[in-house]
Design brief:
It is a single chain. By secondary structure, the protein is mainly β. It contains two helices and 28 strands.
């Protein structure tokens, strides 16, 4: 989950296809990579969640973002803000265009687009969904713990954002923020909701993770009627024999999870597909399948290995997730992932890094 995630431009001009795991094939999408490569203004981000606003308009939700310039393979005059968004008009990357949005401070400097109403820390933008004419956003809240490492942060909250005018330009959104009461941080356990969302059968499923000290992240799951997501009394949590309103009864659904992932319906397989970076930080992008949104989940299959992890021992990859609205066939998923460096200076001097990196995966 590390931030200022280096989104990875490989400079590849041809598609590289490789078999990864049982039945899956993968293919890099440099034409999609190029769509996001800017040389002025927005010059890279991680997070990379998407919301289908209309059939032709996709909203991108980014976390840590660089604003500045790219010259001769370097980022110059780069300021980092904690979140930004973009509109992608069209799906075909050959004809699509992208508009980027972020905030401005009173001095006119780049600033995060969305900030916590309680004034504490910042938001990294997680998943979102259209529901009942509104857009709901999951907003994990963080604060700095030190300035020495890329992992010098901790989560302190989880919020639900509701945007009443989601088709307005993002800098004109009318948003309410409500703290999700079921999150817990500290005392040997972190529990959060905000890893992914899924809409089906009149429910919104809100995926989260539970992590005990020195243990791997586990998936947990909540759901609410799509018209009542903001009414927390309506939330239910997956347990062994169904659903209960007591979050303490929620069970672990599968392990090896990351802080952010995706769950999508793959029509050709008639299964739900979970896409995740193995254990959060890894060159391996994993897939699991299940007949229901809560499982039971299959064993993980490696569907892609991120080549950037081999470039340098300082580089790591993370944040893999699928974007079903970008797929052109029922047997495929378009996936993005991020790459980062333990050395922030490397992100600035190697502008191949820190952009959304695109891969298409297919079942036969």
């Amino acid at each position: 989950m590390a931030r200022h995630g280096i989104g990875l431009l490989m400079g590849v001009t041809v598609l590289a296809t490789q078999a990864q795991g049982a039945d899956w094939t993968s293919q890099t999408l440099p034409q999609y990579d190029r769509l996001f490569h800017q040389t002025n203004g927005w010059i890279g981000a991680d997070g990379d969640f998407t919301v289908a606003l209309t059939n032709d308009l996709t909203l991108w939700l980014f976390s840590d973002t660089f604003i500045g310039q790219v010259r001769d393979g370097h980022r110059l005059h780069a300021a980092m803000i904690h979140n930004s968004v973009a509109w992608q008009h069209g799906v075909d990357p050959a004809r699509a265009r992208v508009e980027f949005f972020y905030g401005r401070s009173s001095e006119g400097k780049p600033a995060s687009l969305i900030t916590p109403v309680d004034g504490q820390g910042w938001f990294w933008l997680a998943d979102g969904m259209m529901a009942q004419g509104k857009m709901v956003l999951l907003l994990p809240q963080f604060e700095r713990t030190d300035n020495q490492t890329v992992f010098g942060f901790r989560q302190i909250g989880a919020w639900l954002g509701e945007v009443s005018n989601p088709l307005a330009p993002p800098d004109q959104w009318q948003m309410t923020q409500t703290k999700i009461p079921f999150a817990r941080f500290g005392a040997g356990e972190n529990r959060s909701f905000g890893s992914a969302m899924l809409a089906t059968n009149g429910f919104l499923y809100i995926y989260g993770t539970r992590e005990h000290t020195n243990a791997a992240k586990q998936m947990i799951l909540a759901r609410a009627p799509d018209k009542d997501l903001g009414k927390f009394a309506a939330w239910q949590f997956r347990v062994h024999d169904g659903w209960r309103t007591n979050v303490e009864a929620a069970i672990d659904l599968c392990d090896g999870m990351a802080a952010e992932f995706s769950v999508s319906w793959l029509a050709s397989a008639q299964r739900y597909v979970l896409i995740c970076t193995e254990n959060g930080l890894s060159e391996k992008i994993m897939a699991r399948t299940a007949p229901e949104p809560w499982g039971p989940w299959s064993s993980p299959t490696v569907i892609y290995r991120c080549p950037e992890a081999k470039w340098d021992k300082q580089i790591f990859c993370y944040a893999a997730k699928a974007h079903p609205m970008l797929s052109s066939a029922t047997h495929e998923l378009v996936i993005t992932y991020a790459a980062n460096s333990f050395d922030l200076a490397q992100v600035l001097t190697d502008a191949r890094l820190y952009w959304p990196r695109f891969v298409r995966v297919k079942l036969p």
